[in-house]
């Protein structure tokens, strides 16, 4: 169960730990024969570790003590602090929090910092209550944050709730909440927009950490963003961006979800005289098949070491540095008086965990099967749609339209298209995008946009995992395939689906808030992989921008450039919202 640091201040526990450290009483648990990875000194040294309850009582010379109620022979293993994932979203793995915990805890991840803004954007305070309840019951230490951006771009999109500064002040007052989650409405921060100013002030007055999302911010904009009170960022775009944010004093959460950037990050860090103490690691988003196959933060460690980062540096970032960021003196170090979160790894390259201790107890079976609240079970109440709902109508004979060019780092574009019988005719290399509001705040009428540079589509894709308001989003060229995809998900209660030529190629149902499933991780991962594989038949990917992940971020309006939302084609940083992509109709 998740505990607060003051559980280690029990006088009786300290009495027992001191007595055991002196040799006047046996340890509850003794780890012998391990090589200790000292993330403070950088040493690898032989040491035995004695635990009393949730506390490390002694780290002493190898073989000097044998008195313990239980002993673990760790000969040949490396003892490290429990890994701390500094920023993540359970919902990105498309399974419930208890299933997620069962996946990462045995791999050595003992603490995660969870921003549940996906659940909050769909189900509001009910979503937050579910997140907090799951965190309290979890054997994984889940530090839950208060979502700052519900919705992420107010006025440019509609979510299932609206968290004002008053709402967030109440949420932040809870001991179950450990900070303000990533502040994504960057333009509102740097312009000191009244709503965001009040949200930041509530967080500052709470005394808790304010976490950031500084995608593409540089120069004076970055300085202004940090001056507003934000103290971390994970939205790194290059090695130089990483260095600029470190130099700005931000706690950097170097994330594993953008693998193509990790080698550049490692090389950038090598140019510094020393590794910054403000460097932490995070997963941010891990899809279910990747989680099942490769794990969470342990996988990020493996890749960083493979790309040339020293293992001790990677571990320090994933343990001690992260604990310092969280103001958790009880975490991040294997030393007397600290919490007994200890991982015994087979080596410092593969990072395969042989044993994991959480609060001094060996991690064994992680319980699953928590009931799902009814408020999170019916979140896709939309009437069925038809092909006409996905067609752009105009007088013609030609129209000038705005386009969303290039995935991931989107840009505005324009083109002139023909109109036939009142319908705008899209060339084969243009893609339709439609966002349908699913939260009951206004009518579920498709909001249509046009994508250019997103490949030539031979079918459609629909998803209710659509950052961050998570409305139903449909991509495709053929309106019939788009209607089939949309209706399939409406019937399933949410999820992801690929269609082509009137057939459903693959379906992943996600009936819990339209975001996650309570089915086993292996099953969810297999279904997700089937959808992703089916999409190879629908569109030809062109990494690093035109990739599957770009589809779930095409509606993330708080990022720079145009994005489609339920209100239109939105660009909050540019102050632009087009209710229709048609800029000029009736051209000759």
Describe this structure in words.
The protein is α/β, with parallel strands linked by helices. The strands form 6 sheets. Strands 19, 20, 21, 22, 23, 24, 25, 26, 27 and 31 form a 10-stranded mixed beta sheet that branches. A hairpin with an 8-residue loop joins strand 24 and strand 25. Helix 8 packs across helix 9, helix 10 crosses helix 15 and helix 11 runs antiparallel to helix 12. The longest helix is centred in the first third of the chain and has 21 residues. It is elongated, with a radius of gyration of 25 Å.
Q: What attributes characterize this protein structure?
A:
588 residues; alpha/beta; ten-stranded mixed sheet; six-stranded mixed sheet; 16 helices; 27% strand
In short:
This protein has 588 residues and is α/β, with parallel strands linked by helices. It is built from 16 helices and 31 strands. Helix content is 27%, strand content 27%.
Using only CA atoms, what is the Rg? Answer: 25 Å
Strand content: 25-35%
The number of helical elements comes to 16
Taking the alpha carbons of the first and last residues, their distance comes to: 69 Å
Uncertain stretches: none
Total count of strands: 31
Global shape: elongated
Largest sheet: 10 strands, mixed
Average pLDDT taken over every residue: 96
Structural class: alpha/beta
Helix coverage percent:
25-40%
How are the secondary structure elements laid out?
Elements: H1 11-22, E1 27-32, E2 35-37, E3 44-46, E4 48-52, E5 55-60, E6 68-73, E7 78-81, E8 83-88, H2 97-104, E9 109-114, H3 117-137, E10 141-146, H4 165-172, E11 177-183, H5 186-190, H6 194-206, E12 209-212, H7 219-227, E13 232-233, H8 239-247, E14 251-255, H9 262-270, E15 279-282, H10 288-294, H11 297-306, H12 311-318, H13 320-325, E16 342-345, E17 353-358, E18 361-362, E19 398-405, E20 411-420, E21 423-424, E22 430-436, E23 447-452, E24 460-463, E25 472-476, H14 479-492, E26 495-500, E27 503-509, H15 521-538, H16 549-552, E28 563-565, E29 568-571, E30 576-578, E31 582-587
Parallel strand pairs: 1-6, 2-7, 8-9, 9-10, 10-11, 11-12, 13-14, 14-15, 19-23
Antiparallel strand pairs: 1-4, 2-3, 4-5, 7-16, 16-17, 17-18, 19-20, 19-31, 20-21, 22-23, 22-25, 24-25, 24-26, 26-27, 28-29, 29-30
Helix pairs in contact: 4-6, 8-9, 10-15, 11-12
């Amino acid at each position: 169960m998740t505990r607060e640091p003051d559980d280690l201040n029990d006088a009786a526990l300290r009495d027992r730990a001191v007595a055991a450290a002196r040799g006047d009483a046996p340890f509850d648990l003794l780890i012998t024969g391990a090589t200790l990875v000292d993330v403070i000194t950088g040493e690898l040294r032989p040491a035995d570790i004695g635990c009393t309850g949730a506390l490390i009582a002694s780290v002493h010379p190898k073989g000097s003590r044998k008195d313990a109620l239980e002993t673990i022979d760790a000969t040949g293993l490396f003892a490290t602090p429990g890994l701390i994932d500094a920023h993540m979203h359970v919902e990105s793995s498309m399974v419930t929090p208890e299933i997620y915990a069962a996946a990462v805890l045995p791999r050595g991840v003992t603490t995660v910092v969870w921003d549940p803004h996906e659940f909050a954007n769909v189900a509001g305070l009910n979503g937050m209550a579910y997140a907090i309840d799951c965190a309290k019951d979890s054997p994984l230490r889940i530090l839950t944050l208060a979502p700052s951006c519900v919705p992420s771009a107010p006025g440019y999109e509609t979510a299932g709730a609206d968290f004002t500064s008053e709402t967030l002040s109440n949420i932040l007052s809870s001991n179950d909440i450990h900070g303000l989650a990533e502040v994504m409405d960057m333009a509102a921060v740097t312009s000191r927009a009244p709503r965001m100013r009040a949200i930041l002030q509530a967080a500052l007055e709470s005394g808790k950490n304010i976490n950031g999302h500084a995608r593409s911010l540089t120069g004076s904009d970055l300085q202004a963003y940090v001056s507003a009170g934000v103290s971390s960022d994970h939205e790194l775009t290059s090695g130089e961006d990483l260095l600029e944010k470190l130099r700005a004093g931000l706690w950097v959460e170097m994330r594993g979800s953008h693998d193509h950037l990790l080698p550049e990050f490692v090389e950038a860090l090598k140019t510094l005289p020393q590794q910054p103490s403000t460097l932490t690691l995070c997963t941010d988003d891990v899809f279910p098949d990747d989680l099942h196959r490769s794990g969470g933060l342990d996988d990020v460690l493996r890749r960083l070491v493979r790309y040339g980062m020293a293992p001790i540096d990677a571990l320090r970032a994933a343990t001690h540095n992260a604990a310092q960021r969280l103001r958790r003196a009880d975490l991040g170090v294997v030393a007397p008086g600290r919490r007994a979160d200890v991982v015994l790894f087979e080596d410092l390259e593969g990072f395969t965990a042989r044993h994991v201790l959480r609060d001094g107890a060996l991690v064994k079976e992680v319980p699953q099967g928590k009931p799902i609240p009814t408020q999170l079970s019916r979140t896709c109440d939309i009437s069925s749609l038809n092909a006409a709902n996905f067609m752009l109508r105009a007088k013609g004979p030609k129209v000038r339209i705005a386009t969303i060019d290039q995935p991931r780092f989107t840009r505005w574009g324009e083109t002139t298209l023909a109109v036939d019988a009142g319908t705008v005719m899209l060339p084969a290399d243009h893609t339709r995008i439609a966002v349908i509001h699913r939260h009951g705040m206004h009518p579920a009428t498709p909001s249509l946009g046009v994508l250019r540079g997103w490949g030539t589509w031979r079918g459609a894709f629909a998803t209710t995992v659509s950052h961050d308001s998570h409305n139903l989003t449909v991509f495709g060229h053929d309106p019939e395939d788009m209607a089939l995809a949309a209706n399939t998900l409406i019937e399933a209660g949410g999820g992801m689906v690929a269609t082509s030529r009137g057939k459903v190629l693959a379906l992943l149902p996600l009936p819990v808030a339209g975001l996650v499933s309570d089915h086993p991780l292996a099953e969810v991962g297999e279904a997700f992989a089937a959808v992703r594989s089916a999409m190879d038949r629908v569109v030809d990917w062109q990494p690093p921008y035109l990739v599957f992940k770009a589809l779930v971020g095409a509606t993330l309006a708080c990022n720079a450039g145009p994005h489609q939302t339920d209100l239109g084609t939105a660009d909050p940083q540019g102050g632009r919202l087009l209710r229709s992509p048609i800029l000029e109709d009736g051209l000759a």
